[in-house]
Amino acid sequence: MISLSKRVFTLFVFTILCGITSAQAQKIKEGFDYRILPVPQPVETKGKVEVIEFFWYGCPHCYDFEPELSSWVKRQPKDVVFKRVPVAFRDDFLPHSQLFYTLEAMGKGDALNEKVMYAMHKENKRLLAESEIADWAASQGIDRNTFLATYRSFAVVSKARNARQLSEAYRIDGVPTIVMQGKYVTSPSIAGTKAKAITVMDYLEEKIRKDKYK
C-alpha cells in the first residue's frame, strides 16, 4: 500500500514531467514555426509590437483563421499595434483591396470586414464588379453614392496599389501571413496549425518586448 506522502511525491513528479513534455511539445523554432525576412521592413510605430496580417477577402484559409486571430487581437495590451493589409495576387482582385480601404476610410472596417468574408464564403458573392460591391455596401446600410465616391477616390485607389507593393516588399507568397516587427513571419501553414500559429505569435510578441521592440 502506497503512503499518502509517496502518492503526493509521485503526483508531484508526474506533474513536473507533464510540464516538461508540454514545454517540449510547444518548443518554437526559427525556420520551422516562423522565419525571419532576409530584408527587414521598417515599422511605423516605435516602442510598440507591430503586427500585420496580410490577407485576401476571398481566401478560405483567411476566413477560417479569422475567429482565432480576432480573439488574439482582442486580448492584446496597448503596446501591440495590429493592422491588416489586403493582398491582390492578380489584377482582377484589386477591387477587394479597394473595398477594404473604402470601408476603412468610412470607419466601417471593424464592423464589416467579417461580413464581407461571410458574404463571399457563405453567400457565394464574388464582389468583384463595382456595381455588385456597391449594392452589397448599400445592403449594409451605407449610402451607395457616398460609398462609390470613396471607392473611386484617389486615396483609396492609391492605398490598394501600395498594399500590393508592400506585399511584394514583404515577399508574401500566400495568405493569411502574419508579420511581426517587420521581420518575423508566421502563419497557420508555416506553424502547422491555427492554434500553433497563435502560440508562435505570443512567443514572438514576448521576444520583441525582451529585445526592446527591435
Structural description of this entry:
The protein is of the alpha+beta class. It folds into two domains: 29-87 and 172-214, Glutaredoxin, CATH 3.40.30.10; 92-159, 3-Layer(aba) Sandwich (Glutaredoxin). It is 55% helix and 11% strand. The protein has helices at 4-25, 60-74, 94-105, 109-121, 130-139, 144-151, 154-169, 188-191, 194-210, and strands at residues 35-36, 49-55, 80-86, 177-180, 184-186. It has a five-stranded mixed sheet with strand order 1-5-4-2-3, sandwiched between helices. Helix 3 (94-105) packs across helix 7. The longest helix is centred in the first third of the chain and has 22 residues, at 4-25. It is globular, with a radius of gyration of 21 Å.
Give keywords.
Glutaredoxin; about 210 residues; alpha+beta; 2 domains; about 10% strand; five-stranded mixed sheet; about 55% helix
Total beta-strand segments? 5
N-to-C CA distance: 58 Å
Strand content: 5-15%
The multimeric state of the shown protein is single chain
Helix content: 40-55%
Number of helices: 9
Q: What class, by secondary structure content?
A: alpha+beta
Q: CATH topology of the largest domain, which one?
A: Glutaredoxin
The biggest beta sheet reads: 5 strands, mixed
Query: Low-confidence parts, pLDDT < 50 over ≥5 residues?
Result: 8-25
CATH homologous superfamily name of the largest domain? Answer: Glutaredoxin
Please state the second-level CATH architecture of the largest domain. 3-Layer(aba) Sandwich
Strand order of the largest sheet: 1-5-4-2-3
Using the CA coordinates, give the radius of gyration: 21 Å
Shape: globular
Mean of residue pLDDT?
91
Domain count: the total is 2
